[in-house]
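Data deposition worksheet. Section B asks for the primary sequence of the deposited chain exactly as it was used as input, without tags or linkers unless they were present during the calculation. Section C holds the resulting structure in token form. Section D is free text for depositor observations; keep each observation to a single sentence. Incomplete worksheets are returned to the depositor.
Section A, Depositor: J.P.
Section B:
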Amino acid sequence: MKYKLSKKHVKMSKFIKKYFFIVSVIFIFEGCGIYSFTGASLHPDDKTVSIKTFPNRAPLVNPALSTAFTEKLKDVFVSQTSLDLVQTDGDLQFEGEITGYSTAPISLTEGQHAAQTRLTMTVKVKYTSVNKPEANFEKSMSRYADFENTQSLSNAESNGLPDEIIKQIVDDIFNEAVVNW
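Section C:
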């Protein structure tokens, strides 16, 4: 018994074939590390990343900051690239330190009282690419977030304010190192 497909079925069949072809190509490029949907542009020989602990050398010390920052940086590179995390001598290498963690009053009110306080964090980072040395850099990156002056610094910290700043700085480092827009 012979079956004859209608024009509608033929069009649908062609659409499905094209769809699966496109999806297959995307997975091949993503899996081979040729392209990443995060925008990461890695050298074909880049297979590993090493990230040393960023010690907190800021005058105002938050004891959890060093670990939180270092782990967030590791998480971003492991989750948004195909790189394997190694202890030392990665194809991409990050090291540095937290050099600033401070508060300053902002948004003065009528009576010259601060309505908000700004928490600023600065990180000095050194990036070394074994396979793409022209991309190496060493610089300080700084970000901030504001909180109401009715809140203490410890309350702002427990409400996740440092995590917000850490995410911004880590995104800046990721973009500077591997995103070539």
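Section D:
The chain is about 35% helix and 30% strand.
The first strand starts at residue 48 and ends at 51.
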